[in-house]
Amino acid sequence: MNEASFYRCLADGTRLAVLHHLAREGPASVSQLADATDQEQSNLSHHLAELRDCGLAVADREGKRRLYRLAHPRLADLLEEGAWLVDHIEASDPEACRAEGCC
Predict the structure, then answer these.
(1) What is 3-71's CATH number, 3.30.200.20, 1.10.10.10, 3.30.559.10, 3.40.50.1220?
(2) Strand partners, 67
């Protein structure tokens, strides 16, 4: 995967919400992630497959269920830095985030 593909995988609100949840709370099942993100399990399963395909999340079997986790611990750092940057860009220049789809 190249860097542009990596960032495309992150460019979805649901996938970001899942990754942020996994970074904060650790491994979680599909039902836990569905509750945390207010998504239907069927829709969430699609996003989880995308995250697995991109190499951002890993699913481990625990009995009959799968627990999803971040594929690499440094991904949590990237998510934290990204959230910090968005907050600070918006705070330093409110006009910078007026375009639809920005910030």
Answers:
(1) 1.10.10.10
(2) 60
